[in-house]
Amino acid sequence: MEYNPTSYMKSLRISPVDMYFVNRRFPIEFILFYPYRIQAKPLKKALKKVASLFWPAFGTYTNGEIQALTDLEDDWWKEETIDTIFDPTKKNDNIHNEFGTEYLKSLQYSKNFKPPLRLCHFKLIHFQNGTMLIPTMNHLVGDGYSYFYLLSVLATLYRKRNLPFASLFIGKIFKPRLIRIINKKIQVPKDILEGYLPDETLTVEFIEFKKTEIRQKVLQASEQSGLPISTNDILCAIEVLSILDSQSNENPSNIHLVIPIDVRRGVPEYGKKFFGNGIMILKILFQSSEIANSTIESIAIHIRKSIPNVNTESFELFNEKVIQWIDTGNYDKLLPYNPEKDCLVTNLSRIPFKTLNFGNGIPTLVAPTTIGKGSTLVTSNKDNYILRRVR
After folding, report:
1. What is the dihedral of CA 321, 322, 328, 330, to 10 degrees?
2. pTM above 0.85, yes or no
3. Up-side HSE of residue 223: CA atoms within 13 Å toward CB?
4. Closest CA to 370 of 101, 33, 150
5. H-type helices in the chain, by residue range?
6. Is the Cβ–Cβ distance between 82 and 157 less than 8 Å?
7. DSSP state for residue 182 in the 8-state scheme
8. Residue by residue, what is the 3-state secondary structure of 254-313?
9. Among the four 191, 297, 358, 369, which has the fewest Cβ within 10 Å?
10. pLDDT in 10s for each residue of the chain, 391 residues
11. Which domains does the chain have, with CATH numbers?
12. In this structure, are residues 276 and 15 in contact, taking their beta carbons and an 8 Å threshold?
């Protein structure tokens, strides 16, 4: 589909934090497997309603603006059938290689990367025993919260499709907030940074920790410091030690712990319905020599002390810092993290599973397919925190 300026209706200036993802090499993609069939025709109908509400996700990006398209065409949708049984309970360490979309792989791995027109894509795979839904959304459009917010509304529209006026009612209730509170026009760099492309085979490993064990460490660190230590502080501390332990003793180096902090609760101008990158990206420096003999609890305390209060003022300061980097040409600072020496920890342990119901229950598998060296994704089940490490 060729770019046609007359086909656009709405436009939205990107915010400073969006600049971290302006090269469009940072997709969000999960596999959701349902042990029943999701019908394609009503799903596409529900998606068209979702596209009218969350229009930036289905639009395109150019020159600092996300622009809406007047209609949906086949460039955002793919459907296929695999005549076999899918087992969602088996070990799925390499699920990103088996089912991750070519769209995602081109974003992450291709050195000759050419951005696709749309910022959001859907893939539907029918198996003998159920349906696999694979939504891909570019991070330029929004964060993980936004991704699952969109999917929750999609599931609700699909599930309630036969009720009179359901689409209108659901649209009013769940209509997202799209406006950015930073109004200054962002000067997009002429030379967009490529990002860090993997030049080696990456491995994915899953490590589980009992929630009771993590909560005990939270209690110990909180009593020791008098600070409100969180489970995420402890899990991030575990990952810092993991990175340092993997380094050569002969050539130790310093690392940054990189944490996306959701600002929706602290910034009332955004709120829980904000669709976009409602995050601050925090980078905490750790010097190997200083924490060689540190405990998980002491590192977690350091992390907690480094996390700013989240409010409108701190968010504005963060945005102004990003704007200053852009104005002074420090574009290297706009890459979220350096996988060669940083550790990115993203916590999605509170995925809204109950809202991902397409009529006959929640998915029996929710698995990420994105790969980023030096990254850890935190998810959870009833008893455990699950750390998905890419090294």
Report:
1. 120
2. yes
3. 6
4. 101
5. 40-53, 95-99, 102-109, 144-159, 166-174, 211-225, 231-246, 296-306, 312-327
6. no
7. -
8. CEEEEEEEECCCCCCCCCCCECCCCEEEEEEEECHHHCCCCCHHHHHHHHHHHCCCCCHH
9. 191
10. 333 443 446 899 999 999 999 888 899 999 999 999 999 999 999 999 999 999 999 999 988 899 998 676 667 899 999 999 999 988 766 788 889 888 888 887 777 777 778 899 999 999 999 999 999 999 999 999 999 999 999 999 999 999 999 999 999 999 999 988 776 677 777 666 677 777 677 888 999 999 999 999 999 999 999 999 999 999 999 999 988 777 655 455 788 999 999 999 999 999 999 999 999 999 999 988 777 789 999 999 999 999 999 999 999 999 999 999 988 888 888 889 988 888 999 999 999 999 999 999 999 999 999 888 899 999 999 999 999 999 8
11. 5-174 (3.30.559.10), 204-351+372-390 (3.30.559.10)
12. yes
As given in the structure block, the two tokens for residue 48 are 């068209």
